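Module 6 notes. Inverse folding takes a fixed backbone as the condition and produces residue identities as the prediction. Think of it as a translation problem where the source language is geometry and the target language is the twenty amino acids. Below is one complete input and output pair. Work through it position by position during the lab.
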């Protein structure tokens, strides 16, 4: 998402060359998202297969554009910033190709953790560091449950109810199922 956004800024707000190359890369990103829309309901294995066939060449095409123009563009320009970001994060940006569980865009996760980031600012004003740590721990459990499609309230009730009975590390680890496995509560 960040890479696409940087190229979009270059396409819309950059110098003439930035708008041209940025638009070219944005066209490629559009194709990536079109392919992703077509495979969204397929099995994890099918997604990986189709991504290797259809999307990986497009990501490599962006990489070629970046490599061919990297030294021709000022690094402080919108396009230069997009190039630097893509180049520095290429391995991370293409990782989704090999994992059918994740998509090419991290926007959903960012929207979920935005609340956590806002809460983090509030914890600065906790009376004690222990209170802030406890708040962040509970918040982390809630966010993890939400990401995994688990009802946070039900999972926390189960964990809080059962934690006094935990005797060893296996017992504590088993409690994690309540926040990562739907229908476990």
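Target side of the pair, the amino acids:
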């Amino acid at each position: 998402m960040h890479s696409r956004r940087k190229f979009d800024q270059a396409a819309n707000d950059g110098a003439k060359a930035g708008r041209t190359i940025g638009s070219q890369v944005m066209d490629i990103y559009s194709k990536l998202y079109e392919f992703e829309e077509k495979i969204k309901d397929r099995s994890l294995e099918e997604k990986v297969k189709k991504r290797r066939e259809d999307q990986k060449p497009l990501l490599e095409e962006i990489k070629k554009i970046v490599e061919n123009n990297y030294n021709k563009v000022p690094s402080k320009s919108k396009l230069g910033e997009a190039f630097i970001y893509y180049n520095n994060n290429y391995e991370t940006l293409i990782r989704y190709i090999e994992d059918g569980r994740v998509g090419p865009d991290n926007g959903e996760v960012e929207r979920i953790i935005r609340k956590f980031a806002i809460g983090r600012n509030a914890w600065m004003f906790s009376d004690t560091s222990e209170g802030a740590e406890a708040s962040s721990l509970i918040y982390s459990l809630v966010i993890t449950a939400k990401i995994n499609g688990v009802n946070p309230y039900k999972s926390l009730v189960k964990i809080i109810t059962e934690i006094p009975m935990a005797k060893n590390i296996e017992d504590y680890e088993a409690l994690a199922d309540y926040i990562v496995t739907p229908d476990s509560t």
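Reference fact for the lab report: Residues 2-98 form one domain.
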